Amino acid sequence: MGKLTKRAVDAHTPPGKGQAFLWDGEIRGFGVRVVPSGLKTFVVQYRNVEGRTRRMTIGRYGVMTVEQARDQAKVKLGAVAGGADPAAENASLREAITVTEVCDWYLAEAEAGRILGRRHRPIKTSTLAMDRSRIETHIKPLLGRRQVRALKLGDVEAMQSDIASGRTAKPRGVGRGGATTGGAGVAARTVSTLQSLFAHAVRLDVITSNPAVGVRKRAGKKKERRLSVAEIKRLGDAMRVAERNDEHPVALAGVRLMLLTGFRISEVQGMRRDWLHADQGYVHFPDTKSDGQVRAIGLSAADLAASQPARKNCPYVFPSDVGDGHFTATKSCLARLCARADIAGVTPHTLRHTFGSVAGDLGFSELTIAALLGHAARGVTQGYVHIDEALKLAATRTCEEIASLLSASDGGDLP
């Protein structure tokens, strides 16, 4: 075998099982390992002063080039010639690594796009922001100083209990972020984040095992709040009063569109004009929480979105008051409307759940409702501009039913 090159590594085919090696012809002990999944990693293999064969990973091919790996191999093998044992030293470092160090490694690698998440794609910015929040708010304060190798399953479950009881809760700070609260749902999601980042660290040889495997996550309280027919009517009354009292028209339109479509608040506020196909009754989201989707919308919703005033050099359906970004104050408008209508316990997710519940009341199946809400794992809402006519009918009937309730007065007097 001659000198290891990119062409040679690319041509090195994965084995049916086990692992296969391709060794460099110039530097003895330097090579690349490939496993059945196609993952290729650079390695060095040598005998230490005790005569024991050692093999250690240098880095992953694709993240590291052949020449970069060659330079690292020279350093490692040079150290071996001087009597060192780099593999043993790496093992010692892995054993001493703390939870904070693993968290920082994960955030840096994910930020650089070197860690693949769902569908083998780089982790989304929104997901990474949530992971960072859980790490800085809950994981580091409770477990950050602990060495990963000494961490027990009970320690992770104790962290979960502390989060659920509110030990890491904090009041609202300066800026847009809300208060940091506890609860079973927050605790369980934080454990999921910890399990995931540890799994990435094991796979990429940063730590030797995942101490969070097997943790029993707490069951969060399912969000089942929906608006009743009377509450939808009262919300419609509140919208009309608010409109007369100079409530922000973009905020009002955003609240109405969430209720008429079941879209997430981030999908409504961040909707771009070129995603909206009002004449064909759909919105093409290139990237959502559940990946790219085409979502059907009813006539009233399509007309509402299409009628929003455009602003020069701003691509959004709901533009911000200043700059070229999108509107961000829809949630606060919803809170004011609900306070005026004397409706308690309403969040943007409540409007989404209400849309799904109304669709259920109209007799549509769970599969259809899942597709309307963008929950479907596959099907006509994922990646296709053509939408099944039955799905269009479901979106239209649900949308128009809610629009009718919003326009029908509850009969009560609102301030």
TrEMBL record:
A Pfam family the protein falls into: Phage_integrase
Protein origin, superkingdom: Bacteria
InterPro entries in alphabetical order: DNA_brk_join_enz, Integrase-like_cat_sf, Integrase_catalytic, Integrase_DNA-bd_sf, Integrase_DNA_bind_dom, Integrase_recombinase_N, Phage_Integrase
PROSITE patterns, per the entry: TYR_RECOMBINASE (PS51898)
GO biological process: DNA integration; DNA recombination
Domain Tyr recombinase: start-end pairs: 222-397
UniProt keywords, alphabetically: DNA integration, DNA recombination, DNA-binding
Single GO MF descriptor: DNA binding
This protein's record includes keyword DNA-binding: yes
Keyword Glycoprotein: no
PANTHER family hit by this protein: PROPHAGE INTEGRASE, PROPHAGE INTEGRASE INTS-RELATED
Family: Belongs to the 'phage' integrase family.
Official protein name in the record: Site-specific recombinase XerD
Organism: Mesorhizobium australicum (strain HAMBI 3006 / LMG 24608 / WSM2073)
